[in-house]
Each structure stands twice: as C-alpha cells, then as structure tokens.
Amino acid sequence: MHKLIKLAGNKFGNLFSLTTFGESHGIAIGGIIDGCPAGVEIDQTRIQQDLDRRKPGQSKIVSQRKENDIVEIFSGIFEGKSTGTPIGFIIKNKDQKSKDYSHIKDSYRPSHADFVYDEKYGFRDYRGGGRSSARETAVRVVGGSIAKQFLKEINIQAFVSRVGNIKLEKHYSELDLGKTENNIVRCPDSATAKKMEELIKSIRKEGDTVGGIITCVVKNVPIGLGEPVFDKLHAQLGKAMLSINAVKGFEYGSGFDSSKFKGSEHNDVIQKDGTTATNYSGGVQGGISNGMDIYFNIAFKPVATVMKKQNTINKDGEGVVLEAKGRHDPCVLPRAVPIVESMAALVIADYLLIKRANKKNTK
C-alpha cells in the first residue's frame, strides 16, 4: 500500500520561518513567524512602510484595488520587542470584488493557475485566483520586514532595472540606491525611470501588460552563510525568488553572462589587501557567502491577465473566448520590489541563525 504524502508548501525557512495563510478574496490573509530571537526591537511603523510599498492603488501604473493593508499583530511582540514566541498577524481584505471573477467560474484564464489547481485539487477558488493570487505576498512583506529588523547591519536593497526593452545600463555600484523610492517605478535612475513609466502607461492603454527585471543587492553579509551541498545560499535565494508570482528566472553574480568568459578571465582577482577588483561570484562561493556584496537579478513575466479577448477552454474542454475583467497590474515590478527584499531577508535571517547554531564553540 502506498503511503500518502502531503507537502503543504505554505512554510518557508528552517530556524527563522514564515507560514502564510489566506486567499485573495477571503476575510483576511496572515502569517506566523517562528524562530525570531527574543529581544529584537520591532518597529511596526517600518513594517507598515514596507506594506505601503507593495499595496495596490499606490499609483496610476499599478492595480487600482484599494487595500489599506494594515497589519494586526496578535502575538510574539511585547513593549516593542520580540518575545521569542511565534509572531502571529493578519491583514484584512477590504476591497474584494468577487463578482468581477464570476465570468471565469467555469473557464480557465490562459497562463494562470486556474486549470492546474482544478486538476490537482478537483476544486478551486476562482475569486481573484484564491490562494495562487499575488495578494498572498503581502504576508511575505510583513515577515521580511521583521527579518530585516533582526538583521540590523545587513542592508538589502532591490530596484527595477528593466521594463520591457528599457534597461538601466549602469552597474548597481554606480547608482545611488537611496533614490529608488523617488519615483513610482522604483528605478534609482530618474531618466530611465521616466521612460519606464511612459512605457507602462502606453502598454496599459493597449489593454496589455509588460514584464521586466528587478535587481537586488545585499551588503554587509558575514562570511559563512550557506549549507552545502543541497542547501547552498544561492540555491535557497533562487527558491525564494522563484516562489514569487510571475517570476520566470533567477541569476546571481555574473549569471548567464559567465558562459561567455574563459576561466582565466572570469576568476576574481584577489589584491594584496585582501579585497577583490571584481565580484563575478556575486558574493557566494561554494554555496557559502564570502563577505562581498550579494547581487542577483529576477525576471518577471508580463502579467497573464490582459484586457483583450483570448481563446481558452472551459471545464468541459470546450473552446471559449475569454475577456478579462477586474483590476490588474499592467506591470508587477514596482510593487514587487519590497517582495524581493523580503524574501531575501527571510533567507539571510534563516542562514544567520543556522550559522550561529553550527559555529564551533571555542570558549
């Protein structure tokens, strides 16, 4: 007799973990953070600021769903500090318009999770995609914001580096990443940001969508984060990023461009003072952080929901024409920046605790 194995897939992390729950059009979404050490100062204003960066309706180039995304924390924090016990929280859904999805009750949206959820479970919540909706990522932002406050000196900064065919040509080291929040696209170069904004607006007028790339840089990372051989640091970062809705690719360091080099050209040059002139490895060697900046790119596909007629099938396998309704992002990248930062923070926080547990006691 075969034993039934159920992998829930709702928990991320080992020692510092986040479990999420809820659906797009349910009463609320929420999460439980387990493993956050006691005594960490938690500023709820900072958590709300990160949520505000992700929430819909914040500008003319994102979904116009109006959600305040106010987090309510029920446990694990007392007098502004973590207690070491599970941190439980919810974010109530306020602006659901489930009727906008009644037209897909018996039909499948192309390139969405509709068909596979129905086939896997024999049932699906068609309202906004249910559990497969990107609405769930708001919970990740709360978890990541708390992780960032635990990490303190480690700085995690993501920004939009490409929208469609408009690419930010400068290396991150040439940019003032503090200017990322100065525009609604979240690109630290104002001239490029303006071009990206105009492209998104024009795509929206066409009833279409556009993808792009987010770059993330993690600074002041200690040496030694990562667990050989299957839990290498870059492998876990890749898993974290690929778990985000609409992500189609992940590369760290020199990434796919490394295939163009000779070995003698690609190796980092170590100077007499111990520093390196290059960082092809992206801050990770042998799956373990080497103390240099960790940097990586995440590719996002165009949002699958477009305001144009598309051919699809219904539950009976019959061909039908579907025309989308509702409020959707013409480009997810501006809102995805804090999600990328949060997932990176969860990985780094988890591996920092693992490193502490693995460190040989020399006292």
Structure report:
With 363 residues, the chain is an alpha+beta fold. The protein has seven helices and 16 strands. The protein has a five-stranded antiparallel β-sheet, covered by helices on one side. It has a five-stranded antiparallel β-sheet with strand order 9-8-10-14-11. A two-stranded antiparallel sheet has the order 5-6. Helix 3 crosses helix 7 (333-358). It has one domain: 4-Layer Sandwich (Chorismate synthase, AroC fold). Helices cover 25% and strands 20% of the residues.
Percent of residues in helices: 10-25%
Rg computed from alpha carbons, rounded to a whole number of angstroms? 21 Å
Which residues form runs of ≥5 with pLDDT under 50? none
CATH topology: Chorismate synthase, AroC fold
Query: Can you list the strand order of the major beta sheet?
Result: 1-2-3-7-4
Q: How would you characterize the largest beta sheet?
A: 5 strands, antiparallel
The name of the CATH superfamily reads Chorismate synthase AroC
Helix tally?
A: 7
What string gives the helices and strands in order?
Answer: EEEHEEEEHHEEHEHEHEEEEEH
Structural category: alpha+beta
Mean pLDDT: 90
- Number of DSSP strands? 16
Shape-level CATH architecture: 4-Layer Sandwich
The CA-CA distance between the termini, in Å, is 52 Å
Total domains: 1
Task: Please tell me what the overall shape is.
Answer: globular
- Percent strand: 15-25%
CATH level 1 class label:
Alpha Beta
